């Protein structure tokens, strides 16, 4: 994809035929979603036309030394020599041919798709909110379950056990589920944080039948995000014992972000010491003036970014935030609130330390609400963020310097971003788009920003939110049925849903082989505006040449050297 101008993006010429984002020296790219042919096809067509104009047979690479000169040079052993070779050119079978020449039937080489454009699994999801601001998908590597928020109910789904909805997780309420997040993989707790529109955040583990905490915030909840790594700190039960805790960020409709520390003892420790855990409010961040739309952590947990409806994205250092907070000003233990049911809600409107926008390391401004935020897992210092309908771009930033590295105009509302873990690629999903824009999922290379995968949806439905899922089309219907007994119950005695909820619409494609990258990286689970959950393979198998590449960090070899990036032509992350 070449740098190009876009009507929706302010840009200036770079003097070399490309464009830069206004106010920076970062290249501006325009996603090539509307071209009928890709650059490789156009180059091949140009070569054929040029060969025809010069009367050269592309299948014969060498000139025959014994061929008589005929003005333009003839080719050796051409199959069409002597049969109308001097006839006039005519357009036949979608190509130029000599009149009277013997031509073989047109052989159309069907181009192999980078990935299947049809999802390998589709789950019905009635009551799924068609809301850009909701993030109602989460996956737990510890519990091996996918959590989905449908209306006012949270459901757990996995490939072998089907669907279940713990009653303690879903009290009778008219409020809807707005966001979900699971705790860190290395912590092994599998704690689910479920935020609701009435200001409640429920903490529940799929391994347990009872819900431990129900936190009541002063404003409706918009975002929740657990830190991807656990943190050691002194236990609230015994100050002389160090335990692993989970850090949790909660964003609300007022633009506040609350930083919590969650101590979650095991069931054995809970029964032995009669201590169900503790939720500690460390600090409140008051950086945004409007509702929080997105929160993301860096893979190492050292930094996090918050995006708001005020078109701002703030980047913060975790250690600095914890150091500035006052963890002893507000904490709750289960000894004071033993049940945490709906009638015993935990009100955490206690004194806390506020941090303003001046505390952030960097502040990035875009043209719309910032929901999609993704830190690169294989390159420290690389951050991608995207805005809503008025922005329609993917912005790449250097987190240490705050410099803009590149911008891609996607001609559509960007709803989520997911980095590849094995190659220099990033996947994006799209919501509202231009009428002629049929694509709802695309994969871009970094740093060339070339499109390597684009998946169209041939309807007007939109991708609302997406997360990575470590699986592919490898579970057959017969395998799932083997997990159920004759009464339609699974091995743990849970009744399988017969109402059609999360029922797969088509299992015929499952059980076969799939792309090795899907086996390695998994797929993308997408919440769709047609009340369905789609499982898409998005990571292409084949490599594509992208031409000469510059430094990964905005073409800067100096920044590459600082971060220890080796200059090589390989695309695979080692």
From TrEMBL:
- PROSITE patterns tied to this protein: WD_REPEATS_2 (PS50082)
Q: Which domain of life is it from?
A: Eukaryota
**GO CC annotation terms, alphabetical:** anaphase-promoting complex
GO biological process, alphabetically ordered: anaphase-promoting complex-dependent catabolic process; positive regulation of anaphase-promoting complex-dependent catabolic process
For region Disordered, the annotated ranges are: 1-26, 61-89
User: In which ranges do the WD repeats occur?
Assistant: 285-311
Keywords tagged on the record: Repeat, WD repeat
| Keyword Repeat in record | yes
Molecular function (GO) terms listed? Answer: anaphase-promoting complex binding; ubiquitin ligase activator activity
Looking at the keywords, is Repeat present?
yes
Bias (Low complexity) occurs at 1-14, 64-74
- Record's Pfam families? WD40 (PF00400)
InterPro entries per the record? Cdc20/Fizzy, WD40/YVTN_repeat-like_dom_sf, WD40_repeat_dom_sf, WD40_rpt
Kindly provide the name given to this protein in its UniProt entry. Answer: WD40 repeat-like protein
Record organism: Microthyrium microscopicum
């Amino acid at each position: 994809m070449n740098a190009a101008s876009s009507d929706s993006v302010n840009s200036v010429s770079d003097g070399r035929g490309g464009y830069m984002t206004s106010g920076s020296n970062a290249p501006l790219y325009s996603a090539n979603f509307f071209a009928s042919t890709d650059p490789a096809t156009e180059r091949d067509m140009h070569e054929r036309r040029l060969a025809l104009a010069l009367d050269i047979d592309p299948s014969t690479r060498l000139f025959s030394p014994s061929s008589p000169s005929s003005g333009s040079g003839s080719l050796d052993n051409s199959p069409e020599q002597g049969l109308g070779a001097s006839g006039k050119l005519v357009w036949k079978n979608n190509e130029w041919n000599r009149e009277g020449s013997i031509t073989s039937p047109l052989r159309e080489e069907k181009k192999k798709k980078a990935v299947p454009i049809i999802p390998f699994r589709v789950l019905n999801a009635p009551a799924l909110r068609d809301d850009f601001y909701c993030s109602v998908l989460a996956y737990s590597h510890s519990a091996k379950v996918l959590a989905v928020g449908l209306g006012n109910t949270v459901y757990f789904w996995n490939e072998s056990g089907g669907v279940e909805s713990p009653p303690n997780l879903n009290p009778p309420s008219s409020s809807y589920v707005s966001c979900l997040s699971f705790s860190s993989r290395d912590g092994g707790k599998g704690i689910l944080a479920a935020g609701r529109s009435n200001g409640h955040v429920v903490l529940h583990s799929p391994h347990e039948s009872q819900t431990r905490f129900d936190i009541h915030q002063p404003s409706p909840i918009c975002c929740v995000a657990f830190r991807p790594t656990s943190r050691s700190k002194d236990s609230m039960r015994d100050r002389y014992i160090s335990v692993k805790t989970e850090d949790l960020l909660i964003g609300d409709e007022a633009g506040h972000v609350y930083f919590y520390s969650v101590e979650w003892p095991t069931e054995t420790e809970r029964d032995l010491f009669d201590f169900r855990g503790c939720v500690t409010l460390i600090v409140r961040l008051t950086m945004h003036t409007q509702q929080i739309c997105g929160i993301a952590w860096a893979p190492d947990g050292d930094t996090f970014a918050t995006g708001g409806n005020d078109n701002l994205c703030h980047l913060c250092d975790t250690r600095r935030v914890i150091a500035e907070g006052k963890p002893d000003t507000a904490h709750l233990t289960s000894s004071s609130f033993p049940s945490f049911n709906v009638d015993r809600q935990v009100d955490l409107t206690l004194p806390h330390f506020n941090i303003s926008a001046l505390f952030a390391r960097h502040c990035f401004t875009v043209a719309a609400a910032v929901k999609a935020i993704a830190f690169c897992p294989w390159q420290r210092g690389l951050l991608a963020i995207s805005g809503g309908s008025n922005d329609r771009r993917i912005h790449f930033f250097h987190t240490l310097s705050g410099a803009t590295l590149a911008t891609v105009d996607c001609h559509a509302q960007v709803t989520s971003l997911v980095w590849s873990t094995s190659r220099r690629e990033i996947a994006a999903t799209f919501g509202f788009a231009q009428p002629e824009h049929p694509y709802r999922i695309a994969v871009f290379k970094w740093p060339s920003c070339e499109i390597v995968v684009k998946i169209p949806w041939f309807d007007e439905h939109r991708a609302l939110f997406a997360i990575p899922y470590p699986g592919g089309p490898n579970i057959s219907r017969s395998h799932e049925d083997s997990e159920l007994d004759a009464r339609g119950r699974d091995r743990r005695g849970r009744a399988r849903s017969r109402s059609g909820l999360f029922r797969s619409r088509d299992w015929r494609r499952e059980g076969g082989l799939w792309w090795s990258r899907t086996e390695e990286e998994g797929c993308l689970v997408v919440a769709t505006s047609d009340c369905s959950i789609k499982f898409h393979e998005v990571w292409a198998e084949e490599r594509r040449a992208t031409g000469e590449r510059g430094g990964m960090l905005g073409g800067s070899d100096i920044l590459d050297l600082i971060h220890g990036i080796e200059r090589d032509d390989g695309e695979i992350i080692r």
